[in-house]
Write a structure and sequence with these properties.
Radius of gyration: 18 Å
Number of helices: 7
Strand content: 25-35%
Distance between the termini: 43 Å
Bound molecules: zinc ion
Number of domains: 1
Oligomer: single chain
Order of helices and strands: HEEEEHEHEHEEEEEEEEHEHHEEE
CATH topology: Metallo-beta-lactamase, Chain A
Length: about 280
């Protein structure tokens, strides 16, 4: 690898900041890999308990993630989970001993994932994938994690919530310190939704909205774009998804995403119509 002063490395590529004593945000720029996703940020999260550190997602794998974590977790045991198995959340899985994921998506990370759709990105950086032949490597060991599972990190605990819709095994993660990590189930920017799963997706958003009845101060940390947002994200998204049919006349086909694009005042939606 080229180590000249100007060359990018993991520490320059990932933007890392301490958001709270027990929570680091690690961001990378999806738009700098390929702007055709209409998405700026991929957000990874590192929760730090007194015994265990929990990494939520491993990014798109274009730069190694482990060097970033080593500085932050000290002597703690590291556990890693995937909110779901899309390429931009699992790219660094191969760097870790074991990955936790919902049973619905275990199979998907147990084999290499083809990302050759990135070959014609306008940006040179995708050439970093060339040596791996545009494949995201499979995870080394996989352990399934189901709805309701509680993980005690030491002074901090998290609960797994199954929130299918964006994908069948999408999970959200709720901490006992009022943080809710929603993966791609809810975020601002471009939401990727499946036309056949809209009802399922809406039910998952309802499930998350219900959490606010008892925990009014919850903050939402999505896997893309803005973080530490409030309940209004879920209200807006629920309204938007319910309204997609009324936007349908304005839809435009996107050749790269192989999806229909529609927009409202808040979101862009990439709508997939599977057979
Ligand atoms: Zn994503």
């Amino acid at each position: 690898m080229n180590n000249s002063k100007n060359s990018l490395d993991s520490h320059k590529w990932f933007e890392t900041f301490k958001h709270k004593d027990h929570l680091y945000i690690i961001r990378e720029r999806l738009d700098k890999i390929d702007p055709r996703f209409y998405t700026t940020y991929i957000n990874l999260f590192l929760l730090i308990g007194s015994q265990i550190a929990l990494l939520i997602d491993t990014g798109c794998g274009i730069f190694p993630l482990k060097p970033i974590l080593n500085d932050l977790i000290e002597d703690k045991v590291l556990r890693v989970l995937n909110t779901h198995s899309h390429f931009d959340h699992i790219g660094g899985n191969y760097e870790f001993e074991k990955i936790y994921i919902h049973p619905e998506e275990e199979k998907s990370i147990s084999k290499p994932k083809d990302i050759s759709f990135l070959r014609d990105s306008p940006y040179e950086i995708v050439k970093r994938y060339e040596s791996r032949n545009y494949l995201i490597p499979s995870a080394n060991n996989i352990e399934s994690i189901k709805d309701g599972t509680i993980i005690d990190l030491g002074g901090l605990s998290v609960q797994i919530i199954h929130t299918p819709g964006h994908s069948s095994g999408s999970i959200s993660v709720l901490t006992n310190k009022d943080e809710l990590f929603t993966g791609d189930t809810a975020h601002y920017g471009t939401m990727y939704v499946s036309k056949n799963e809209l009802t399922t997706h809406l039910a998952s958003i309802k499930k998350l909205l219900d959490l606010f009845k008892e925990k009014k101060d919850l903050k939402i940390y999505p896997s893309h774009e803005e973080i530490a947002v409030g309940k209004e994200l879920l209200d807006d998204l629920s309204k938007g998804l319910n309204n997609i049919d009324s936007l349908w006349e304005t839809k435009k086909w996107d050749n790269f995403l192989e999806a229909w694009l529609v927009s409202d005042d808040v979101f862009k939606y990439a709508v997939f119509e599977e057979q």
